[in-house]
Design a protein that fits this description.
156 residues; alpha/beta; Aspartate Aminotransferase, domain 2; 2 domains; two-stranded antiparallel sheet; disordered C terminus
């Protein structure tokens, strides 16, 4: 155990597995860069996806996802989440109409990738968000681009 260094908001005990001043600053800066109120750092994209979906859905619920996914994500949704009783409805492609048709009263999230892997397709974000939000369902977007330097395009 240690105490925060000067410059942190008052002394408080911290352990690196539950609080780290470095991670705290990183999360605050990411939130500021993205225009958010907060951010949560994860050790990997798979961990971030798990935290997001496991927070929103529980046994008996489902998520709707495009089929244009990184292979690890597909396996996480198809295999791991099913072990927790969370099913994934995979929509072939990313048509907003097909996503809307897959949403039901047990749907807790719609999941898309900012740039589909492996097809490099760009989903219709606004149309997909509209059908999801009209149904009262949040949209989870993997913002990890398949190549570096692409994510700045979403601010255009």
């Amino acid at each position: 155990m240690s105490e925060q260094s000067e410059g942190m908001a008052g002394p408080r005990p911290w352990w690196t597995d539950s609080f780290s001043p470095t991670v705290d600053v990183f999360e605050k800066r990411i939130a500021a860069l993205e225009g958010g109120v907060a951010a949560v750092a994860a050790s990997s994209g798979q961990a971030a996806q798990f935290m997001a979906i496991a927070t929103l859905a529980h046994a008996g619920d489902n998520i709707v996802s495009t089929s244009n996914l990184y292979g690890g994500t597909y396996n996480q949704f198809k295999v791991l989440f099913s072990r927790f009783g969370i099913t994934t409805k995979f929509v072939n492609g990313d048509s907003p109409e097909d996503i809307a048709a897959a949403i039901d009263d047990k749907t807790k999230a719609v999941y898309i990738e900012s740039i589909g892997n492996p097809r490099y397709n760009v989903p219709e974000f606004e149309a997909i968000a509209k059908v999801a939000h009209d149904a009262g369902v949040p949209v989870v977007v993997c913002g990890l681009p398949p190549g570096e330097g692409i994510s700045a395009a979403d601010n255009l």
